[in-house]
Amino acid sequence: MNPLNQPTDQAASAPSAHSVNKPKVRLSCETCRQRKVKCDKLDPCTNCQRLGARCVPVERARLPRGRSGRLATERPGDQDANLKDRVSKLESIIRDLARGGSQASARAILAAAVEEGSQDGENSLGDDDSQAGGVRTPDTYLGSSFWANLLNEVPDIHPNERRGSKGDDRNAETTNLINYRRLLTMASGGTTNSEPPCSSPTHQQLCCLFMQRVDPLCKIIHRPSLKAFLVDGSPYLDYEPGHLAPTALAYSVYYAASCSVSDEESMRSFGIPKSSMVARYQKEAEAALARADFITTNDLTVLQAYVLFLLALRSQDQSRRMWTMLSMALRIGQALSLHLPDPPFHVRPFERELRRRLWIAIGFLDVQASMDRASEPMMQASWLESHPPANVNDIDLSPNMEASPQDSPGFTDMTFTMMIHKAQYVTRSLNFSGFMEPSVTTLAIRQQLVLEFQQSVTKLLQHSEPDKLLLHWLTRAIAECTHASMQLITLRPLQRAPNFTPPHVRGDRLLEFAVNVLIVSRRLRSDPRFATYQWIEFAFPPWHCLAVALAELCVCDDKAVMERFWDPIEETFHQLGRLVADSQRGMLWKPMEKIMARARERRAQLLTTPSPDAYSLTTTIQQQQQQQQQQQQQQQQQQPISMQIDTQGFVPGMDSRVELEQAVAAMNTPESVDCAWPNVWDAVDFSYAGPGTAQMAWTNYENFVAEFYVNVDDPLVNR
């Protein structure tokens, strides 16, 4: 050091030392001052610790009291010193960025910024990740350490500060922040997997489980190509080794497979609880999708991975996450022109089949999510019918094929998927209003759609062997359940339709039919053969059948009928809460509880009034109604067929009249007669429009549907 500079340095440091030695007063920190909340003036203060924000203390020299207050003129100097100190910090940040920021790793810079700027929040996030056995996912919505430090130095624009927040809501806000950080991490990447996708026996075992349990029910992948990649270790299709797209597909396969096992199977085969394994592979699948940039991708394989991820997510998560995230899959599919029969670019036959399979898988998730919450689907039915995939086995497809495959007449790998594809098309037409496309409100045409589904499925299953093969048995069982449910949807649509008048169903046939659907659905879920595919039960909860049955019970006048059907209805009510969307807190279950309460009140009334006179009077009224119905049937036999059906104020033209006659003729075909499920059409009185208990049951059902739209705006429901 130059001796000539020593006096100058000492003189310069004297005021600083003098100012440090002055007694100081702690004021509210910068964060609390900006948020306009009371600060306890600790270092750091309690509010900043709770928010995970950096506490910037504010101090000033203690002002002299009395007439010596002239010394207060030193305050502007202290403020200038504080301002200069903050400016110098900002200048040092800029110098550090210019010196080495551009050469640093983006991930290291980001980790440092998160560690410094929101240490408390990251500790809670890290604990969550470590408990789940996954990979830590840092905050990737901050661009670099420069912005992190800048936000810490300038509290006015700190992202963690929210005005008007209450202490009671901070824990929930922290949890939501962690979830949103994971979502944003998926959008931009930032984590790494510890091992390649096909390196361990566990991964190979999960791949085999996927091909046995998941792939047959949701045909998206070409199974031979996937087996060669994950089991044999060959490159996936024409991708180079280590490509991000096949890696994302691999971890989505592992995640879906982990969701398909039971708790006992997970402990026996993998030695860990199912919840831990599912959480681990969910995080790894999210990380792989993020690195593959799934939101802006043009890669079909990445979209396949994302759709598989959503399918597995819905099997474990009953919240709105999948319902919301599905919109991204639809938009990505449209960006890839999956909705067009002939995309504006060259597509090989093999890729064309994979594109069509993926598109109807998105359609299945769309209609299932719509049924979950009685909402409108995003996709139009015409988008699915214009270019369906071929009903062929995977071995009939190869990456080098030069011509499109032809449909196979037998039971193929695609038969179950094709049956679901036809079911979702009919369900869209029957259940939903004309918001996206014209709805079908004419009863005869609705009936014809169900009959056409039955004929199509009969043709698909004509070579099936349900007594020998498990998948054949499952396909036929679900097809029969679906066909029966469609008959109920025809008579009791999900959406409110002002122009729809329900037909009269004679006697208790509608109640009996709905209860039969509930009984067979319960037997299917409890069948030991269904255990292999138990993970898919979320897609077929018979809540609509339960609602129809409860609406009929609310107007039941026969105690014997009430007691006959009460036990299966109540048992289904108790079991169904875990399957519907948002479980027993969701928008579906609140109306279900209300109509169940009314049915219980009606049952209590019948049990407490065992009057024989009232019972005989009810029997007499029923006999009179039956005689009237028989007279009406005799009159109908003397009318043309088209006039028997057209009693809802609809005057058909020539084309519609032909359709109605074809619909009635189809009811007498062998395909429609040979069905394991009872048929409700023979009990429908198309000409009866008078008041009675049927109209009251319809009113109860309409009130049940109307409750959907009340709960959808409830802030306490569906969070």
Automatic annotation (TrEMBL):
UniProt KW keywords: DNA-binding, Metal-binding, Nucleus, Transcription, Transcription regulation
Cellular component terms (Gene Ontology): nucleus
Family matches, as SMART domains: GAL4
Example GO BP: DNA-templated transcription
Places the protein is found: Nucleus
Molecular functions per Gene Ontology: DNA binding; DNA-binding transcription factor activity, RNA polymerase II-specific; zinc ion binding
Signal peptide region: none
Primary localisation category: nucleus
Pfam entry (one): Zn_clus
Region (Disordered) residue spans: 1-24, 115-136
SUPFAM superfamilies to which the protein is assigned, alphabetical: Zn2/Cys6 DNA-binding domain (SSF57701)
Cited CDD domains: fungal_TF_MHR, GAL4
Compositionally biased region (Polar residues): 1-19
Occurrences of domain Zn(2)-C6 fungal-type (ranges): 28-56
UniProt-listed InterPro entries: Sec_Metabolite_Reg, XnlR_reg_dom, Zn2-C6_fun-type_DNA-bd_sf, Zn2Cys6_DnaBD
PANTHER family linked: UNCHARACTERIZED TRANSCRIPTIONAL REGULATORY PROTEIN, ZN(II)2CYS6 TRANSCRIPTION FACTOR (EUROFUNG)
Name assigned to this protein: Fungal-specific transcription factor domain protein
Phylogenetic lineage: Eukaryota, Fungi, Dikarya, Ascomycota, Pezizomycotina
